[in-house]
Here is the input.
Amino acid sequence: MNAVLLETWRGRVQWGAILGLIALIALCMAWELWWAPLRSGGSVLMLKALPLLLPLPGLLKGRRYTYQWCSMFILLWFIEGVMRGWSDTGVSRMLAWAEVALSIWIYVMVVLYARWTRPSLSAAA
Here is the structure.
C-alpha cells in the first residue's frame, strides 16, 4: 500500500474510532438518563459509560497499544448490547442494537488502526 494513501486512511480510521467511542458514550448516557432508563428519573446504569473514557486519551494520541487493548475492551459493550437487545422491549431494544452497531464500528476501526500501524508495515514502507 502506498505510504501517503496508508497515512490518509490511518487518520480516517483513527477519527472513526474516536467519534464512534464518543457516540457510544453519549448513547449510554442518554439511554439510561432520558430515553429508556430502568427506573424513572434515570438509572445508575449510566455509569457504564464512565469506563469508556479510559481509552479516549490514548486514541486521541494515536497510541497503538491503546487501540490493541480497546479492541478487546469494547466487546463488553457488544455483549451488553446483544443481551439487552435480545431481552428488552420497545425503545430499549432499539438502543441496545444501536449499542451493538457502535461497538462493532469501534472494533473494526481500532483493529484496522492497530493493523496499519504495526512496525513491520512501517519498515516495509
Q: What stands out?
A: The chain has a mean pLDDT of 93. DSSP finds six helices and no strands in the chain. Residues 3-124 form one domain. The radius of gyration is 16 Å.
